[in-house]
Fold this protein.
Amino acid sequence: MITKKERYQFRKDRSRRKLLEGGIRRLRLSVYRSDKYIYAQVVDDQKGGTLAAASSLDKELKGKFKSSGKSVETAKIVGSLLAKRAIEKGVKEVCFDRGGRIYHGRIKAFADAAREAGLKF
């Protein structure tokens, strides 16, 4: 029997493979959502490095939201913060890697906020 974790890993690998096989050579905006927090980073797969990162645990965001990072509002704040940091580094276009999660709720709110802040994907 396949466990829940193995199904998630399969979905994550499939979505990443589609991004990379599609000939997209842009930087990758990777988002991870845990039960409590949300993490995101802009990754350069060619060089193997992270250009910008943000999470709901950042010191900059401490005290800006009442829940610990579980809400849609938190995802919006983190999305706009990551977009701001990426634009400061000169990144304007990325491809969105949602991992194995569906594009709904906090993931969608994060993506919409990043788009509003100036990232294109």
Observations:
- The radius of gyration is 14 Å.
- Residues 12 and 100 are 4 Å apart (CA to CA).
- Helices lie at 4-21, 72-88, 106-116.
